Amino acid sequence: MGTQISLMICPCCNGHDAIERPPSKICETCWKGLFMAHLGLLQKVHPSRGGDQTSGGFTYRTTWAEVASRASEGCRWCQLVYATKEEEEEPGPESPLRIVVGSQGCLQNCTPKGTQDLSVFIDDTLHFIGYVYTTADDPAAQYIVARNRVLDVGTTKSLALAKQSLDECIYTHNSCPRPLALPPFLPTRLIDCSNVAHPRLIATDGTRGSYAALSYVWGEPQPHSTTVSNLETYLKFIDPEHLPQTILDAIHTTHEIGLDYLWADTLCIIQDSPEDKGRELSRMRLVYRDAHVTIIAASARRVSEGFLQERPAAPITDHSTFLRDITLPFLCPPGKGHSGEHAVGELRVSPIWTYTDPPGQPSVQYNPNVEPVNDRGWCMQEYFMSPRSLVFASHTLQFHCQTAVQNVGSAYHDEERRARLPDVLFLQDEDLQLIADLGGDEWQLREAWHMLVRDYTRRSITVPGDKLVALGGIAEGMHRIFRTQYLAGLWRDTLLADLLWSKRVRSDIPRPREYRAPSWSWAAVDGQVEAGAISVRSGKGLHVAHVVTCDITLKNAEIPYGEVIAGKLTLRSPVVACAWNLKTPNLLYRIDSLPDPAVITSTDDDEELEVAMEAIGIGYIDSDDDEGVKGVWAVPIHWSNNIVAGLIVDREHSQAPAAGGKRFRRIGYFNTHAAAGLVNWLRDVPLVDIEII
């Protein structure tokens, strides 16, 4: 069957003016139909609904056999269409196909706003969605919104574009913090970048001004950090030849975006002075919150790498697969700067989804988790505490703020992005005092904290003792709003709910060798933690336990959100003798009377054992170091939405527990369904005071 073309030229076009000869890589049939109709991008596509055919855009008819033939002859468009065909696609190769091409306007959650999609429907079934872009100097740029990615991220031109994004945020984004009428107080020390060939430290002595802050991965020792012995020298001059590339790149970037000062921890904190470290670490929240912008060296694995290297171009798609980009000609309509003549530009299509994608696995444009900074604990709070950031990602340069994430230079970015902290956290103290009642914002903040704990605990911390310190800045910011005591990663007002963190994914990560936090704190273990599983909103559930006392001992009283050296928690709660991991992994069993340890660890199918035990729920171990512990105690804490949740504890000493007696340590978390109220095994259990350390 021959190809039938429904030629739907845009009203502004005249068929006689059209360019007759197709560019290379496009067959004549596609050129005279689809491409003369501007790929259907100027007429919105309306997908099939209620039995109606897909309409709008550009429609043409063909067969799979004809598409395959033209694809084999090199037609780039036919190659794209044929690559969306499954091996056993119906109809057969000679049956007619109705293909509709155009833009649905479906890219709503992306930047820049208005980015066009290119969608392909075959017999009313969606086969392909991509986004289209072109270069700023291409004739097609008048019709295509998105631009190509910035690859030369360190050039004057690229950093000027970055400054445009920064200025646009400062002056037009209502949700982003505006600069103060009085500039903020400067950090204790800064790097003077006004002469990039002659950097030096300055002591700010309580002055005000604007500066950039740097967030990066050390990844290796920095022998030329500031110390007590070289401080005076650095106040005069820092030899650039002694500085690692990331610091040099940050100095260059700071200068290019019009700022004179840069804060970088390696030079602005005296690294061999515990007193200076303690004082400066306690100010981390303000350093990043008050920075004019934070420079994030996202792509650098170590400080010697730098972050201004040219980024690789996107790979071009071949005949049978969708890697990233497809280059196509674009016939521009006349009358928009072309003197009534057609101009042929060039655009690229980058796939977002195709009919042949595995279920649940659309094409990924960019995954921020590949960046080294997003694997480091310290870098997390530096990112979240910064209202504005220039992110030097592995694929391009990005600008992040409270309003949006955008690729500098108007390249496409999917707004399925990392969460941001609630705006209230960026208020100045005097503005925060005006808020008498947070209302719903408080629960938004609680959920934000749980999100932070989940993100933070999956990251690595080089120095184990920094587990709480590296989150201290955000904790301080939250404390300004919660106004309740911070207890080694938990909050006094919501302590019972906060205790119910868990490690849902088993790992072979051992417990830290040295004390880092009490066992009831998530900071006592390594590996990702799930937090916030239990709602504590008013009327949502019932606390089965009560807090009698909870205290921590800080290593340094001047750092209330930092290291702790001791902590104890006393709960008044039911305490139920249990065994777990018996026969069926993760099941937690209530024991009517504590049997001989040999019985607890037995795997024999013993009838007497079955009678003596009752499965009460699922247990999640905190560390595989405790895998061998069989005789444990369940401490129910909360009943909500038909679920009882609590802690699994082991005695700290070898003696059997007694009411009001011995110390325990947390080794896990459990939950169990309780559809008809408190389950029978809890009804008659007396409350006892239990101390957990």
SSE inventory with pairings:
Elements: E1 4-5, H1 28-35, E2 45-46, E3 55-56, E4 58-63, H2 64-72, H3 76-83, E5 96-102, E6 110-111, E7 117-122, E8 125-134, E9 146-147, H4 156-172, E10 189-192, E11 200-203, E12 212-215, H5 231-234, H6 245-256, E13 261-263, H7 265-268, H8 274-281, H9 284-289, E14 293-296, E15 326-332, E16 343-354, H10 377-384, E17 388-392, E18 397-401, E19 405-407, E20 413-414, H11 429-432, H12 440-457, H13 472-482, E21 486-487, E22 490-491, H14 495-498, E23 542-543, E24 546-554, E25 564-574, E26 576-580, E27 587-591, H15 597-600, H16 607-612, E28 613-621, E29 631-640, E30 643-651, E31 663-673, H17 680-683, E32 687-692
Parallel strand pairs: 8-9, 12-13, 12-14, 14-17, 31-32
Antiparallel strand pairs: 1-4, 2-3, 4-5, 5-7, 6-20, 7-8, 8-16, 10-11, 10-13, 15-16, 17-18, 18-19, 21-22, 23-29, 24-25, 25-32, 26-27, 26-29, 27-28, 28-31, 29-30, 30-31
Helix pairs in contact: 2-3
Radius of gyration: 31 Å
Report low-confidence residues grouped into runs of 5 or more.
Answer: 1-18, 593-603, 605-611, 654-660
Average of pLDDT: 86
Q: Report the sheet-strand fraction.
A: 15-25%
Number of domains as seen in the coordinates: 3
Q: Class by helix and strand content?
A: alpha+beta
Number of DSSP-assigned strands: 32
The N- and C-terminal alpha carbons lie at a distance of 80 Å
**SS element count, helices:** 17
Report the major sheet: 8 strands, mixed
Considering DSSP H and I runs of 4 or more, what fraction of the residues is helical? 10-25%
User: Which geometry do the CA atoms define?
Assistant: globular
Protein name: Heterokaryon incompatibility protein-domain-containing protein
Organism: Dichomitus squalens
Pfam family, one: HET
